[in-house]
Amino acid sequence: MKKFIKQFLAFLIPILILIVILEITLRHIPNDYSFKNSEIELQKDDVKTLILGSSHSMYGMNPEYFTQSAYNLGHVSETIDLDYLMLKKYIKILPELETVVLRLSYTTLYEQLGVGAEAWRLKDYNLYYDLNVSNKLKYKSEVLSVKLKNNLSQLKAYYLNDEKMITVKKSGWAFFENEHANGTIDDLGLYAAKKHTIASDALVNENILFLDKLVQLCDDKGVKVVLVTLPAYKSYRDNLNDSQLETIINTGKKMNNKYKNCTYYNFMDDEAFTAEDFYDADHLNKKGSKKFSSLIDRLIQN
Amino acid sequence: MLFNSIDFAIFLPIVFVLYWFVFKALKSQNVLLLVASYVFYAWWDWRFLGLIILSTCIDFCFGLAIEKTLIKRHKKYLVTLSVLLNLGILGFFKYYNFFIENFNEAFMLFGRDIDLNYLNIILPIGISFYTFQTMSYSIDIYRDKIKPTKDIIAFASFICFFPQLVAGPIERASNFLPQIQKRRIFNYEKATDGLKQILWGLFKKMVIADNCAFFVNDVFENYGDYSGSTLFFAAFLFSIQIYCDFSGYSDIAIGVSRLFGFNLKKNFAYPYFARNIAEFWRHWHISLTTWFKDYFYIPIGGSRGSKWMQLRNTFAIFMVIGLWHGAHWKFVVYGLINALHFVPYIIRGKNTKYTSIVAENRLFPNKKELFGMFHTFLFLIFARIFFRADSLTIAVDYLKNLFSVTLFQLPQFSSNSQALVLFMLILLSFVVEWFGRDKEHALENIFNKSKRSYRVMFYYTIVFLIFYFNGEEQQFIYFQF
């Protein structure tokens, strides 16, 4: 038995040491999550408008074009359960907060980050926002949640190639370097619509509860909620599932009627947004986000 | 708790240390195994613990009652009741909605709308595996093959032994119960061999099966968008996935058991090197096929009697094997397709032709063996489309799309480089398995005659490949059965 334990540990210890070294070096790499967490801390006394949501929000709303001081706290693939947890954390430290802008996208009620292929992103909320979004040990570590292959590329990019790892501006807004994505907007729309159409509605009720809680939390603190469905290109809209889309829009309308502090706007087929404003069929580019941010700002001001 | 999870990586060493260093007496070790097994099972859903305890109690009591009864007829009643109770529980959880659906449809055919209600039933994980294990216990007592145990802890540990609880191998009391009732002594060779088997199981599951799933899930969900050639490759990858997923699980289960001093039954014997379908089924999910052979096929006549009887029995066993996988007609069809492929072998009396390992004492197979392996594997690729597709209609549609003019186009993958790496890894795993084909598991003898440093380097390479290429974590396919 002693021999077994000794040999097993001799085999295991180098692996464990490498894992620890890798974990430390990976956590030292700055990323959008750690950057936004420290930036919002710096700007907390001024923020009057907080933007929450997924990539649609993160790329689609630029705080620069808001009259009042705003911060974009959106992240790629962020889901409504996480929007709620983020708000719960930050609403306490934002004394001037007046408005929360939240996207209500085609997928918002149908998905949660912890369920699906993007679940690995949960570790970012655990590690860099100090939110307890999952009790799974896996999501409390960089090494355990991401493939070694991807982690090594990350290390190489930062430590060897000196690449910039932060993709967002100080305002939390992110933009696409290219005006338009590769591929035709028709194909991109079809692909995204298919990807975003979710067969199961198992999460809808739970997500509506999160939305309710989020609006109530704002109500308790005297904060307005602007719920928006962002513009999308025709090739995306035309390929959506009618029933899923109807659920989203009806929920938005219900929230609008149910809560005094909540207003819902649906810009999905707003004709003011043309192909020129889109990076792909469901994300706005720099030009589109400028246009959309100004539009939202006018609504908040009114 | 999944074998490929961090939770299990913590759970296993804790149980191991407690087992060998703290609870050294036989009784306390069995209690520890039982508690650990219930914790392991409850990690998914503690509510189903009641069901497994109920199954355990039923067969423990029936076992004793069958033994105590002296009248043969009464013994028969008792064993029948035990089997009916077990099948009743299994049938309710697994097949209730299937029968309701078919009743409703059958009545609709005659113009009557009876509209029986469906129930919202969650299938308890591993129910088909442990139910078969408990049933065989009562039947074996009835057949005087074993004596019942009076030790409920030992019996409960046999039923829910955590390494094989949720996806087998389906153990027999005659093999496993004596091991539970006898003091285990730590064996260095056995334990290190167990670790090697776990390592290989993890490689097959996390590197091969989970990466195959990435392509397979996408193609099967959107089969209408892909060319015939891509559909063929997805079906090929599914065959690889299901083998690496399930045999990977079995390797881990057997390896973990060896760490605790137990020997479980071999569940896979390199089935993709089988030279015909009969050999394949002797090497695939062995614990299930032998279960059906002993408790179903032989009692209904087996290979005795005329060719027609043999054929009837073959079709019957494949139908129940198909249905065992789930309450769906696609599984029945999958079973029947396999049975059909058996027919020529039974008629020509060649279903037991191959009993030795392929290319015995040779490095490479001969032309005949190669052709046999190729044609058997090709058949399985197509048959498994019925297994993987969501329904029978989709499977037929999938095949229609596969056999279109686009079958001769270059296959399209969402990531060509990823697909290429995956093919290389599959090739590597098959080479390793080929060299270990006469052994209990693929890594048993690999590099055993080389220097220790080379061997250790080889294990580190496997660990590295697991960390480097592991795919998105997927539940083991057979958990759903």
SSE topology:
The complex is a heterodimer of chains A (302) and B (481).
Chain A: H1 2-27, H2 32-43, E1 49-52, H3 55-60, E2 70-72, H4 80-90, E3 99-103, H5 122-128, H6 142-145, H7 148-160, H8 185-196, H9 204-220, E4 224-229, H10 234-237, H11 242-258, E5 262-266, H12 286-301
Parallel strand pairs in A: 1-2, 1-3, 3-4, 4-5
Helix pairs in contact in A: 4-9
Chain B: H1 6-22, H2 26-45, H3 49-68, H4 72-109, H5 127-142, H6 152-160, H7 173-181, H8 188-221, H9 228-259, H10 277-283, H11 286-297, H12 307-325, H13 329-347, H14 367-388, H15 392-402, H16 416-435, H17 452-469
Helix pairs in contact in B: 1-2, 2-6, 3-4, 3-5, 3-6, 4-5, 6-7, 8-9, 8-16, 8-17, 9-14, 9-15, 11-12, 12-13, 13-14, 14-15
Mean pLDDT of chain B: 91
Radius of gyration of chain A equals 21 Å
| Poorly predicted ranges of chain B | none
Q: Order the strands across the largest sheet of chain A as they lie in space.
A: 2-1-3-4-5
- Cα(first) to Cα(last) distance of chain A is 76 Å
The description of the largest β-sheet of chain B is: none
Helix percent band of chain B: 55-70%
Task: Please outline the major beta sheet of chain A.
Answer: 5 strands, parallel
Which structural class do the helices and strands of chain A define? alpha/beta
Main CATH class of chain A? Alpha Beta
Uncertain runs of chain A with pLDDT below 50, 5 residues or more? none
The oligomeric status of these chains comes to heterodimer
- Mean pLDDT score of chain A: 94
Any idea what the CATH architecture of chain A is?
A: 3-Layer(aba) Sandwich
Q: How many structural domains of chain A?
A: 1
What is the β-strand count of chain B?
Answer: 0
Percent of residues of chain A in helical segments?
40-55%
Strand content of chain A: 5-15%
> What distance lies between the first and last C-alpha atoms of chain B, to the nearest angstrom?
16 Å
